[in-house]
Write a structure and sequence with these properties.
The protein is 38% helix and 19% strand. The protein is of the alpha/beta class.
């Protein structure tokens, strides 16, 4: 009989909320968070109820700003920007470094908020905070040479990002943009991260950084956050539908932009034999329920290797551990080592289950279907936000799982017989951010890799966004605008010599670094 689990003492949402009230009373009240604009915290916006994906319990709701107030926030950010861009670089560095020290001091609270708001297991939540802090510290050390011959933009940078990496993607980008001399605006993701981003923004604002944080509907606020003439650059991370609308807006206006969109990242297996290594890599692809832009939800496998691939794959997927991220057997136990917790909300879990059932009805073959009984949960807790891992062979072309990223713990496997079929299957989504190819022969791998339409292609290993000096972008429909990472992130949010062409994927040109 499985042991009865209990919530780790001191980790309840109410515990985290009380710590937020103590840490940043200017940003949090007893019953809500405030929006930050014009250098002050405002109790404005219509509160929307919100539930934790962890157990369906109520957590802080979004203070949804209306379009008129959003325009005021943007105009105020331009005033901040004009003052900040004149601040000498040594002072900007000192203030950003002080903000990083404050984030480090609140590392555990920021991580706990990520657990409750977006369902990250403890290990991955801490890693999200650490990558943000460590990454920006690298920029503080390198920014002098990066800014040589460059100036801040004419207006603030507007950030609209998905919910899955509030710290290591969104806060990281905001602080580097500030370091480069820009004021920044961020919209809280609708699906999660409100309290974590509010605390991080409060700590940054205390150090005098020109940060604006507002909440609201993307459709309602896009006129202010994307199309407003005050905006110097739009930075977007999200799906292709929303990204396409943003891309249309910025193209019409000729505005600087960085638009990271989804793609179906594929892992190819061709003329391969190191199954022990691949099995370990397969399990790690399930981190955070594959809810990241560089997840691998599709395996493209040479048909004659399928029996050996399956012998390596199935033990890996069956070893995945999921459940409540804060559930322990004994109060003194450390928090559990999970591969993933819930997906972002119950609606997403329901959508994924329906996609799987529909694909099977249309002819896909279920190779593995986990159950909630495999998970680690508290007695009687709401589990509607959880999706056990699923693996489908040969999803039909009529299914969205054939050509789109599921953003959940659902793998699909496609079998191929020729190199041409391998490449066609790996390029099914017209561009991706990452891909990998497992192939014993280095020459064959080196010949095939350039034909895979992904910005990063790993040979026998997974790829990720990367940190510090590593560049990041996408091919095809997975990316529009300037590439980022390393020096390119600073170049994307500053002006250089007249006539400069930034590396990126633009309407009129594509330039690799």
């Amino acid at each position: 009989m499985a042991p009865t689990l209990t919530l780790k003492p001191g980790t309840a949402w109410q515990d985290a909320w009380r710590r937020c009230l103590d840490a940043a009373p200017e940003a949090f009240t007893d019953d809500r968070v405030r929006n930050l604009w014009n250098g002050r915290w405002h109790a404005d916006g219509r509160l929307l109820p919100c539930q934790s994906p962890v157990d369906g319990s109520p957590i802080a709701g979004l203070p949804r700003l209306d379009p008129a107030d959003a325009h005021q926030a943007v105009r105020a950010s331009l005033d901040q920007h004009r003052r900040w861009r004149a601040v000498p670089l040594p002072e900007r560095k000192a203030r950003v470094a002080a903000a990083l020290d404050a984030l480090t001091a609140h590392r555990e609270l920021l991580s706990l908020l990520l657990v409750w708001e977006i369902g990250k297991p403890w290990r991955l939540a801490q890693a999200d905070v650490d990558r943000a802090v460590d990454g920006v510290r690298w920029y503080v050390e390198e920014i002098d040479r990066m800014m040589a011959g460059r100036t801040p933009l004419a207006g603030p940078v507007s950030n609209i990002a998905s919910w899955n990496y509030p710290m290591s993607v969104l806060v990281h980008a905001m602080l580097v943009q500030v370091l480069a001399g820009n004021a920044v605006i961020a919209k809280t993701p609708t699906d999660g991260g409100l309290a974590c981003l509010t605390l991080a923004s409060a700590l940054a604002a205390r150090e005098g950084l020109p940060v604006t944080l507002v909440s609201g509907s993307g459709g309602e606020l896009s006129e202010a956050l994307v199309r407003a003439p005050e905006i110097g650059c739009v930075s977007f991370v999200g799906g292709r539908d929303a990204g396409g609308r943003v891309a249309s807006d910025v193209a019409d206006l000729g505005k600087r932009h960085i638009l990271e969109q989804e793609g179906l990242n594929c892992w190819g297996v061709w003329e391969f034999s190191d199954w022990d290594t691949l099995s370990g890599q397969i399990r790690r692809t399930f981190d955070y329920a594959k809810q990241r832009c560089t997840a691998y939800p599709r395996f493209v496998v040479q048909r004659r290797l399928f029996d050996r691939f399956l012998a390596a794959y199935l033990p890996a997927v069956r070893s995945v551990v999921f459940g409540h991220p804060l559930a322990v057997e004994s109060p003194d136990d450390p928090l559990p080592e999970l591969d993933f917790g819930p997906v972002i909300n119950a609606a997403k879990a329901k959508e994924l289950a329906e996609l799987v059932d529909d694909a099977i009805d249309r002819g896909a073959v279920p190779l593995h279907r986990g159950t909630l009984a495999d998970g680690r949960f508290l007695p009687g807790q709401d589990t509607s936000g959880y999706m056990p891992p699923v693996t489908l062979l040969a999803p039909p072309r009529s299914s969205p799982l054939h050509h789109a990223e599921p953003f959940g713990p659902v793998d699909t496997i496609v079998l191929v017989d020729t190199e041409a079929e391998l490449l066609a299957a790996m390029n099914a989504s017209n561009g991706a951010l990452v891909a990998s190819l497992s192939c014993d022969d280095e020459r064959t791998a080196a010949r095939l890799a350039p034909q895979i339409r992904a910005f990063k292609v790993g040979l026998g290993r997974p790829r990720s966004r990367g940190d510090r000096a590593e560049l990041f972008g996408g091919f095809g429909a997975s990316w529009r605008g300037a590439f980022v990472g390393g020096d390119l992130l600073v170049r994307a949010v500053t002006d250089g010599p007249d006539g400069e062409r930034l590396p990126g994927n633009f309407p009129d040109y594509h330039l690799m670094p």
